[in-house]
Write a structure and sequence with these properties.
- The complex is a heterodimer of chains A (157) and B (263).
- Chain A contains 6 helices and 5 strands; from the N terminus they run ββαββαβαααα.
- Chain A is an alpha+beta fold.
- Chain A has 2 domains: 2-76, Roll (Ubiquitin-like (UB roll)); 78-156, [2Fe-2S]-binding domain (DNA polymerase, domain 1).
- A 5-stranded mixed beta sheet of chain A has the order 2-1-5-3-4, sandwiched between helices.
- Helix content of chain B is 31%, strand content 25%.
- Chain B is globular.
- In chain B, 52% of the residues are buried.
- The chains are: A alpha+beta (157), B alpha+beta (263).
- Chains A and B meet through strand 4 and helix 2 of A and helix 2 and helix 5 of B.
């Protein structure tokens, strides 16, 4: 089937099988390999991208559901101020080692920062439960997100 | 981990959706349950019918005491307050604990209920609430009491030619008490035992015990459970004769904790 979607601000028309999921479409058709695939059944969170302004599992959106969608992948957040602060925080707090979970982690982290500005550590950990990291033990990831939240609260007062 | 080939259809009105259903298409809404089953090849439909673009499929409307939640309303919308009042508070608290936010952004209340996974959150909570599932078939709408909607594992009262188009609930007074307990070792994973108890002024309290690999157990009058949570929860769980002692313990404890929280 032929579908048209917006990816990182640019229109893309692709010819794919209906069974193709968004992650394979991004990686295989559009060569955007920043989106990583782990479990392919919605549990690990590695493939999380932004769809129509909210995080979604790209492994669970087959082609028909992508037609007309607006998608932002990890490659598309270059100019975003929150993502820039999170990248710095992840680096400073050693919030990644192998990096496999990081694209999905960052998309979810950005959603936490924007949607839950008052989140404490317990809430951040609850919100991260859908993104598995097998390297860091999460401490650095949680610290990085809490650091960005605290900086934004400081800037707002 | 890739689906078998299937065809895709996107009906944009209800008659077209019902026609596709009659031809054997598998309905899909947010795809957060069917998606994994497709990827794992546990589901092998020849064609899926994407219901998300049907008119009125998502959204909440209030008419008097009746709150109509379109079947395609996402868990995230409910978590974020789409349903007003005390009923909305209760539903938002349940929605927040469904899977993970990226899943809640796509997954829908109607899709989840019609799928009827025994561990699903709405399957475990909606039967305790006063209201109906609204089924749409060739002859029009039919209302099924929520307490009688889920009949078994992945089995509902929907007929083969019907789609679930909405959930209609009765608004709840401010003094309504609600207790909910869900056993997960990690937030968002499939529940090992879920219970809820609803106590609204002027009506008998109701309770549900679910995630039992069977239809949810609906307790139409849970007054005894509210009066004596420990003893009554133990009696109810023992009567289920669950095979594994640990499951029986989780069921008993979930029911007791839900009842204690609703007092």
């Amino acid at each position: 089937m032929k579908i048209t979607l917006t990816v990182n601000g640019a229109a893309a028309t692709v010819q794919v099988e209906p069974r193709t999921h968004l992650a394979d479409l991004l990686r295989g058709e559009l060569l955007l390999t920043g989106t990583h695939l782990g479990c392919e059944h919605g549990v690990c969170g590695a493939c999380t991208v932004e769809v129509d302004g909210a995080p979604a599992r790209s492994c669970l959106m087959h082609a028909g559901a992508c037609d007309g969608a607006s998608v932002c992948t990890i490659e598309g957040f270059g100019e975003d101020a929150v993502m820039a602060a999170l990248r710095e925080g992840f680096s400073a707090e050693h919030a990644l080692q192998c990096g496999y979970c990081t694209p999905g982690m960052l998309v979810v982290a950005r959603d936490i920062v924007l949607r839950l500005p008052d989140a404490d550590e317990a809430r951040v950990r609850e919100e991260l439960a859908g993104n598995l990291c097998r390297c860091t033990g999460y401490r650095g990831i949680v610290r990085a997100i809490l650091g960005v939240l605290a900086a934004r609260r400081g800037a707002a007062t | 981990m890739k689906p078998a080939p299937f065809a895709y259809a996107r009906p944009d009105d209800w008659p077209a959706a019902l026609a596709l259903l009659a031809e054997g298409a598998r309905p899909v809404a947010g795809g957060q349950s069917l998606g994994p089953m497709l990827n794992l090849r546990l589901a092998l439909p020849e064609r899926v019918a994407d219901l998300r673009h049907l008119p009125g499929y998502a959204g909440v409307t209030v008419q008097g005491e009746t709150v109509r939640i379109g079947a395609g309303t996402t868990h995230a919308a409910i978590e974020d307050g789409a349903v007003p009042g005390r009923l909305g508070d209760i539903l938002a608290g349940v929605a927040r604990r469904i899977a993970y936010r990226p899943v809640r952004n796509r997954g829908t209340i109607g899709g989840s209920l019609a799928h009827a996974d025994p561990a699903a959150d709405w399957v475990a909570v909606l039967p305790a609430l006063p209201g109906h599932a609204v089924a749409l078939g060739p002859a029009g709408e039919r209302r099924i009491p929520l307490a009688a909607f889920v009949l078994g594992v992945f089995e509902t009262a929907l007929r083969g030619d019907e789609l679930l188009c909405a959930i209609e609930l009765t608004a709840l007074p401010a003094g309504t008490r609600f207790g909910h307990w869900k056993f997960c070792r990690k937030p968002g994973e499939f529940s090992k035992a879920t219970a809820c108890v609803l106590a609204r002024p002027g009506a008998p309290p109701t309770a549900v015990l679910a995630a039992l690999d069977a239809a949810p157990l609906v307790i139409a009058d849970a007054a005894a459970l509210l009066a004596e949570p420990a003893a009554e929860a133990a009696r109810i769980a023992a009567a289920l004769a669950l095979d594994d002692p640990w499951r029986a313990a989780l069921a008993r404890t979930a029911l007791r904790r839900a009842a204690e929280a609703a007092r």
